[in-house]
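Team,

Forwarding the record for the chain on the shared tracking sheet. I've put the sequence and predicted structure together so nobody has to dig through attachments.
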Amino acid sequence: MKPIDPVVPTFYLYGEPRRTVEERFVHVEALVDRTRPSEWTIRPHAHAELNHIFHVASGGGSIVGDHGLVPFSAPCLLLIPAGAVHGFRWEHESSGSVVTLATSYLEDFIRRDASMKMLFPAIMVLACDDDASIGIARRLKGLGQELGWAAPGHRAAADAGLLTLLVRVLRLMGPRADGVADPPSPQAALVARLRHLIEERFRRREAVETFAVTLGVGPRRLRDACARVARMSPGAMLDQRAMLEAQRSLLYGNLSIAEVGYGLGFSDPAYFTRFFTRHAGCSPAAFRRRSVDRELTQRA
């Protein structure tokens, strides 16, 4: 069976073909480098293993994601975790910098300090004052310089500069726990494995029993773990992921409603429409129409 192309494209850096991410990849560039050529509009996309920190020094705009538009204005930081669908509508001539960091590099810092695990929980806007913004800009300039030459110790200096930046971001996120979490319980670990499996196979519309067999547990044990950890059934978790993809397809793609359903494993378009309506409270056609109307209103 021919694999289904994702509705939301996955890039390396924006506009670049996806490829293997280097283990310690970090990149710094000016905000205008990709936004100005794109006429200040970045279409929704994702990065499989790359996280972003945007420093917005002037201007502002909105993040376009699965939950609509999230406005922001300078000075601020934007956190975009790996895998999160995001696009941007920038105010013209906004300025700042973008740091792109491999998940494997972040994990290296987490092994040294567990509090780093608190970074990139979701798409976030972190406001900062002018003094903090100036300090962050200075750190980013230094990090970019160390990454751009081959002087002795430049890699160690880049590590230090990146770590200092991450700590600054972590502290801007506000008072939190120390980040040292207890090891996950067996039930939490099982649910985490299920989520990973759902991400790989949600288009197949498989029965919960099939997932249980693959995970090497009984259906009852799987249901109990999901009820305790996720506060929903395995079937509801499957439906939730299918609905997210359906909504993305209707928002960002040009497929017909029947094609969206086929791509999610529904052989009967009418059944897909009933499924979508039950979960969204409106039909796929109405959802797409409302989204288009909202888009036109926001642009007016």
